[in-house]
C-alpha cells in the first residue's frame, strides 16, 4: 500500500494565530463586494479570477494536519478552480436587489470552507441589469487581509482586459510560503542582534502585566463561545474629516494616529483605567516586494497609552505616534502569545483599532469600471474593534462588536460618543483630554 507524499510548509505566525482562533467559528474571513458598471462579459471575469488564483499560491493552498499535529501544514496545489456562481436579479426591483445582496453578503460571513480539500476562493456574480453587476469575493482570513482584497480586485481588473497579462511573470512574485518561512526564521534566530533587539522590545513592554480594558456595560462570556460579530457604522462629517487632514499636516502625523488617539481617549473616559491597551492592526507591508503580494501579512500590535486628566490631546497624539512607529519597527518579532492570550483566544487584547484606505477606485477595464463598496475582515478576536475607513474624502467609523457581550444600543452610544470625540479633538487639539466633548 503506497503512502501519500505531502509537500507542506509551516504556517506563518499570523496563520498559526488564526488557526488557533478559528476552531468552530466561521467569523474569520475576508470578503468584499465589488460594483461593476458597464457591459460585462461574465466568462472573461471568471477567467480573470482564475488567472489570479493561478498566479498566487496562497489561493491554491489547503491546510492538512498530519497524524499527531495540532497545527496544519500549508499544501500548495498545482491547479485549483475557484468556486463560482452567477445569480440573476434582473427581475427584482432595485430595493429588492439591494436587500437580497445584503442578505447574501451576510450569509457569506458564515459559509463553511473546506480547509483540507479546497477550493478556498469563493466568488458570486449578481446581475442587476445589462450594465450593472456586483461581484462577491470571499476567502478565509488564513489567505487574505484587507490589503490582499484590494490587490485581488486590482488584478482581476487588469486581467479582465485581454492584453493585461502580457509581460506578467509569476516567477517575479513573492509567494506566501516564502514569507512564512522568513517570518519563522526571524522569530527562531538566536544569534542575530536585530532579532534580539526586536524580541527585547516586546518583552520589556510586558503586555500581560497590564489590565485588559473592560467596558462598564459589557456582559460576561466564555472565551470558548463561538465567535461572531455585528457592525454599526457612523459617518464622520465632511468638515470634520477636512479638519483632521489639516491637523495631521500641522502636527506632522497621519490621520490614522489622530483617530487611534481618539479611540484610546474615549476608552479612558469610559473606563477610568489609566493604562489603555489597544490592538492596532498594522498592514505588515513595510517592504516594496510585499506591496503586490497576496496573503495575511497584517498583524495586531499592542499600543499602550497612559492617561491623566491634565494631558492635552496634542500630548496624546505625540505619544501614540511614537508608540505606533516603534511597534511597526519591531512588528516582525511580535507574536500574539506574548500578550498572555488566554488559551490562545487573544482576549488579553480585547479592544482593537484599524485604519483602512478603501480608495474610491473606479478603474476601467474593457469598458467596465470596478469599485469596492463593501468589505468585511475578521482576522482576530475582539470584544469590540473600531475600524475607521477613508474612501476618497469620506470618513466612516465602523464598530465591530461581539453581540454576546454588548447590547446594540450600548454600541450605538459608543459610536455617537466617538464621532463627538473626533469632532471635539479636531476643533480643539490643545484641549485637555478630560475636557473633550462626548455628547
Structure overview:
This protein has 439 residues and is α+β, with helices and mostly antiparallel strands. It has 2 domains: 9-176, Chloramphenicol acetyltransferase-like domain (Chloramphenicol Acetyltransferase, 2-Layer Sandwich), CATH 3.30.559; 178-360 and 380-435, Chloramphenicol Acetyltransferase (2-Layer Sandwich). Helix content is 34%, strand content 23%. It has helices spanning 13-22, 42-55, 94-108, 146-160, 176-188, 193-205, 238-251, 255-271, 313-329, 408-427; strands spanning 9-10, 29-37, 61-64, 73-76, 83-88, 122-129, 132-140, 230-236, 275-282, 299-306, 351-357, 363-365, 368-377, 384-391, 394-401. The chain has a 6-stranded mixed β-sheet with strand order 5-6-7-2-13-12, sandwiched between helices. A 6-stranded mixed β-sheet has the order 8-15-14-11-9-10. A 3-stranded antiparallel β-sheet has the order 1-4-3, with helices on one face. The longest helix is centred in the last third of the chain and has 20 residues, at 408-427. Residues 341-346 have low confidence and may be disordered.
Amino acid at each position: 500500500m503506497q503512502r501519500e507524499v505531502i509537500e507542506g510548509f509551516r504556517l506563518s505566525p499570523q496563520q498559526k494565530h488564526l488557526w488557533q482562533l478559528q476552531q468552530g467559528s466561521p467569523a474569520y474571513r475576508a470578503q468584499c463586494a465589488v460594483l461593476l458598471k458597464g457591459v460585462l462579459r461574465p466568462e472573461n471575469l471568471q477567467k480573470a479570477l482564475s488567472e489570479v488564483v493561478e498566479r498566487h499560491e496562497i489561493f491554491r493552498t489547503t491546510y492538512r494536519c498530519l497524524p499527531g499535529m495540532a497545527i496544519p501544514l500549508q499544501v500548495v496545489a498545482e491547479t485549483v478552480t475557484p468556486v463560482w456562481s452567477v445569480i440573476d436579479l434582473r427581475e427584482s426591483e432595485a430595493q429588492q436587489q439591494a436587500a437580497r445582496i445584503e442578505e447574501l453578503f451576510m450569509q457569506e460571513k458564515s459559509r463553511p470552507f473546506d480547509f483540507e480539500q479546497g477550493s478556498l476562493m469563493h466568488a458570486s456574480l449578481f446581475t442587476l441589469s445589462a450594465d450593472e453587476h456586483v461581484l462577491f469575493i470571499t476567502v478565509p482570513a488564513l489567505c487574505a487581509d484587507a490589503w490582499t482584497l484590494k490587490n485581488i480586485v486590482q488584478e482581476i481588473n487588469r486581467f479582465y482586459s485581454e492584453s493585461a497579462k502580457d509581460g506578467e511573470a509569476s516567477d517575479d512574485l513573492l509567494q506566501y510560503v516564502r514569507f512564512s518561512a522568513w517570518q519563522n526564521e526571524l522569530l527562531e534566530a538566536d544569534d542575530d542582534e536585530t532579532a534580539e533587539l526586536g524580541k527585547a522590545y516586546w518583552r520589556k513592554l510586558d503586555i500581560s502585566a497590564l489590565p485588559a480594558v473592560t467596558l462598564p456595560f459589557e456582559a460576561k462570556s466564555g472565551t470558548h463561545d463561538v465567535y461572531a460579530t455585528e457592525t454599526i457604522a457612523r459617518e464622520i462629517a465632511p468638515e470634520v474629516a477636512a479638519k483632521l487632514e489639516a491637523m495631521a499636516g500641522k502636527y506632522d502625523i497621519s490621520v490614522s494616529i489622530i483617530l487611534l488617539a481618539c479611540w484610546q481617549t474615549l476608552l479612558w473616559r469610559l473606563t477610568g483605567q489609566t493604562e489603555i491597551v489597544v490592538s492596532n492592526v498594522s498592514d505588515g507591508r513595510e517592504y516594496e516586494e510585499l506591496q503586490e503580494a497576496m496573503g495575511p501579512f497584517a498583524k495586531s500590535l499592542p499600543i499602550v497609552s497612559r492617561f491623566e486628566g491634565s494631558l492635552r490631546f496634542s500630548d496624546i497624539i505625540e505619544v501614540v505616534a511614537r508608540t505606533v512607529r516603534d511597534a511597526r519597527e519591531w512588528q516582525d518579532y511580535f507574536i500574539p502569545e506574548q500578550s498572555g492570550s488566554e488559551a490562545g483566544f487573544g482576549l488579553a487584547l480585547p479592544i482593537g483599532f484599524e485604519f483602512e484606505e478603501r480608495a474610491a477606485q473606479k478603474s476601467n477595464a474593457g469598458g467596465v469600471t470596478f469599485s469596492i463598496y463593501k468589505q468585511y475582515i475578521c482576522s482576530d478576536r475582539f470584544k469590540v474593534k473600531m475600524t475607521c475607513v477613508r474612501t476618497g474624502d469620506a470618513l466612516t467609523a465602523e464598530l465591530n462588536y461581539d453581540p454576546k457581550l454588548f447590547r446594540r444600543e450600548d454600541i450605538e452610544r459608543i459610536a455617537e460618543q466617538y464621532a463627538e470625540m473626533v469632532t471635539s479633538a479636531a476643533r480643539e487639539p490643545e484641549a485637555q483630554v478630560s475636557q473633550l466633548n462626548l455628547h
